[in-house]
Amino acid sequence: MNGPVLSLEVAESADREEFRRAVLDGLTSPPRAVPAKFLYDARGSALFDEICELPEYYLTRAETAILQRRAPEIGRRAGPGCALIEFGSGSSVKSRLLIEALPELALYAPIDISRQHLDATAAQLRRDYPALNVAPVCADFMGPVPPIESPARRLGFFPGSTIGNLTPAEATVFLRRTRDLLGDDGALVLGVDLKKDPQRLHDAYNDQAGVTAAFTLNLLRRMNRELQATFDLAAFAHEAFYDEAEGRIEIYFRSLRAQTVSVAGRRFDFAEGERVHTEYSYKYDTADLAALASGGGFRIAEIWTDPERLFAVGFLESMA
Ligand code: AVI
Question: Which residues have CB under 6 Å of ligand 1?
Answer without folding.
Answer: 51, 59, 160-162, 164-165, 205, 212, 215, 279, 281
